[in-house]
C-alpha cells in the first residue's frame, strides 16, 4: 500500500513539474523584444516591442520613442495577441512564444504579414 502511494506521489510531482515548465506566464514576456516583419516597406521592417508588468497587469508598447499602446493584450499559455491603431486602421497581432522567441502574424486591411521577435538581454 505504501509503495502504491509513493509511486502515485512521484507521478503527480513529475506531471506537475513538466506542466509548470511548459506553461508560459506574463512574466516570461516582460522585457524588450526586437521584431522583424516580412513583406512590408523598409521603414516598418524592424523595431522594438516592450512588455511591462504593473499591478498584476501586463501592458505592451510598440516603438521606443513614439510608443503605440497594445490594445486588448492577452497572454495565455504562450500565445500573445493584441491590436494596434495604425494609420487609420487596426492591426491584429497574434504570436506564439517559444522561450526567447516570438513568431506569428500581423493582419491588416492590406493583408497578412509574418513577424518574429527575439528578446533583448536585460540591462
Short description:
By secondary structure, the chain is of the alpha+beta class.
What tags apply to this protein structure?
123 residues, alpha+beta, disordered N terminus
Describe this protein's structure.
By secondary structure, the protein is an alpha+beta fold. It has two helices and nine strands. The chain has helices at 2-22, 26-29, and strands at residues 31-37, 46-54, 57-62, 68-69, 71-76, 79-86, 89-98, 101-108, 111-119. The chain has a nine-stranded antiparallel beta sheet with strand order 4-3-2-1-9-8-7-6-5. The longest helix is centred in the first third of the chain and has 21 residues, at 2-22. The chain is globular, with a radius of gyration of 19 Å. It starts with a helix and ends with a strand. 13% of the residues are buried.
What fraction, in percent, of the residue positions are helical? 10-25%
Mean pLDDT: 83
Order of helices and strands: HHEEEEEEEEE
Radius of gyration: 19 Å
Low-confidence stretches: 3-9, 11-24
What overall geometry do the principal axes of the alpha carbons give? Answer: globular
| Computed structural class | alpha+beta
* Strand tally: 9
List the strand order in the largest sheet: 4-3-2-1-9-8-7-6-5
The helix tally amounts to 2
N→C terminal distance = 53 Å
* Main beta sheet: 9 strands, antiparallel
Strand content: over 45%
Amino acid at each position: 500500500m505504501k509503495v502504491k502511494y509513493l509511486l502515485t506521489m512521484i507521478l503527480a510531482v513529475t506531471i506537475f513539474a513538466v506542466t509548470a515548465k511548459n506553461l508560459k506566464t506574463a512574466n516570461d514576456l516582460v522585457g524588450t523584444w526586437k521584431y522583424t516583419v516580412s513583406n512590408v516597406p523598409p521603414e516598418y521592417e524592424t523595431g522594438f516591442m516592450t512588455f511591462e508588468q504593473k499591478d498584476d497587469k501586463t501592458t505592451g508598447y510598440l516603438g521606443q520613442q513614439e510608443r503605440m499602446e497594445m490594445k486588448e493584450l492577452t497572454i495565455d499559455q504562450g500565445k500573445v495577441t493584441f491590436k494596434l491603431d495604425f494609420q487609420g486602421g487596426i492591426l491584429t497581432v497574434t504570436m506564439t512564444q517559444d522561450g526567447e522567441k516570438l513568431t506569428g502574424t500581423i493582419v491588416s486591411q492590406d493583408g497578412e504579414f509574418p513577424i518574429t521577435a527575439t528578446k533583448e538581454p536585460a540591462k
